[in-house]
Amino acid sequence: MAASCVALLALCLLLPLLLGARRRWPRGRAARHVLVVVLGDVGRSPRMQYHALSLAGCGFSVTLLGFCNSKPRDELLQNDRIHIVKLTELQHLAVGPRIVQYGVKVVFQTVYLLWKLMWTEPAAYIFLQNPPGLPGIAVCWFVCCLCRSKLVTDWHNYGYSIMGLAHGPQHPLVLLAKGYERLFGRLSHLNLCVTNAMREDLAENWGIRALTVYDRPASFFKETPLELQHELFMKLGRTHCPFQARSEPSDPATERSAFTEKDAGSGLVTHLPERPVLLVSSTSWTEDEDFSILLAALEKFEQLTLSGAGLPSLVCVITGKGPLKEYYGRLIRRKSFRHVQICTPWLEAEDYPLLLGSADLGVCLHRSSSGLDLPMKVVDMFGCCLPVCAVNFKCLHELVRHGENGLVFEDAEELAAQLQRLFSKFPDPAGELQQFRENLRSAEQLRWDESWRRTVLPLVD
């Protein structure tokens, strides 16, 4: 309560300055200008990057506000119509009770975001990512009222349900966040969401009408040509042992990675016949992804390999950054695998699609905190025609069709059985894994740009 009073007092003191900032801009320029707001790392918010690129491609000028902890895609950085405004993130406070620390952070973000928005050129629309929506929804709605803009809230999940993973569903902060989202979510002019299940939940329980805009892969998510695979493996091999060759080629001039070989004379790249399986997973290392499931499945896979089950060696690459990375890193370092290697690189934005397009299988451990959102990492994998094994939850069927484009599992035992099933004859050009890939190739791969123009553009143009 005290934090709210402090925020209100600060707003009253700042309001004359903010209104003065608004008057600096001629109103006519706002019609083709859009603000895209991400109270998170822009580089790890692909959907909002795609919104910005799509808006720019349709002739809007775009100002993208967000934290810049990791590099966004080059297409976004090089686009003359997109201007990135870097937000400063208040570092974690280690003084006082947690609720006080959280209150101070919210007050700071409220005043700071309001200041940034009001000193930015007015826009016809403000596109806001939710979560995190506290205090973003309220601040953006307030700015829209002052500047006669329209607020578009893009619901990726519920912020309160994510908070509930750490604090419990009945924690006062979680209940407060739920009430806040319910109240201010209704004030948006337009609501987008990522699944039909979320659209129905917003309508039935929140009184919010939303449009489902499925995540779609961008055009750069596609199968990687063998020559580019080799270049990527050689590059990663300089810093990560699992990509390095297991044996030296007979010709010293021949380039060899753990998976591929490039002939010195002809330059021809081929897969090594005894190459390991390349399994890829990506994560934000948060509570909604339990990587102990994958580690337990890999332990079982190792045991099967040692017992003579005829399984290949396996390289597991887990990409991403997040709060639980060090915790799982310690668990991984304790393992003593002989036929399984695990590495956890942070890839450049341009290398990530190449890795997905080079892999044999993707694994997704995302369990939606609300049960209503879908993992975009699987969307990107499907764009690369990469089959997926995914842990099951409420609306996963809207994306992963069991036995058609991948497999769905419930626990580590089932995942281990699926790995054995898919890799028992690896690499088998007629096996089940290859059939999943062929199904993905033959399915209509609706890309983000095309989907966005069909669904969102008619509402904002």
UniProtKB/TrEMBL annotation:
<protein>
    <recommendedName>
        <fullName>Chitobiosyldiphosphodolichol beta-mannosyltransferase</fullName>
        <ecNumber>2.4.1.142</ecNumber>
    </recommendedName>
</protein>
<dbReference type="GO" id="GO:0004578">
    <property type="term" value="F:chitobiosyldiphosphodolichol beta-mannosyltransferase activity"/>
</dbReference>
<keyword id="KW-0328">Glycosyltransferase</keyword>
<dbReference type="InterPro" id="IPR026051">
    <property type="entry name" value="ALG1-like"/>
</dbReference>
<keyword id="KW-0732">Signal</keyword>
<dbReference type="Pfam" id="PF13692">
    <property type="entry name" value="Glyco_trans_1_4"/>
</dbReference>
<keyword id="KW-0256">Endoplasmic reticulum</keyword>
<dbReference type="GO" id="GO:0005789">
    <property type="term" value="C:endoplasmic reticulum membrane"/>
</dbReference>
<comment type="pathway">
    <text>Protein modification; protein glycosylation.</text>
</comment>
<keyword id="KW-1133">Transmembrane helix</keyword>
<comment type="function">
    <text>Mannosyltransferase that operates in the biosynthetic pathway of dolichol-linked oligosaccharides, the glycan precursors employed in protein asparagine (N)-glycosylation. The assembly of dolichol-linked oligosaccharides begins on the cytosolic side of the endoplasmic reticulum membrane and finishes in its lumen. The sequential addition of sugars to dolichol pyrophosphate produces dolichol-linked oligosaccharides containing fourteen sugars, including two GlcNAcs, nine mannoses and three glucoses.</text>
</comment>
<keyword id="KW-0735">Signal-anchor</keyword>
<keyword id="KW-0808">Transferase</keyword>
<keyword id="KW-0597">Phosphoprotein</keyword>
<comment type="similarity">
    <text>Belongs to the glycosyltransferase group 1 family. Glycosyltransferase 33 subfamily.</text>
</comment>
<feature type="signal peptide">
    <location>
        <begin position="1"/>
        <end position="20"/>
    </location>
</feature>
<keyword id="KW-0472">Membrane</keyword>
<keyword id="KW-0812">Transmembrane</keyword>
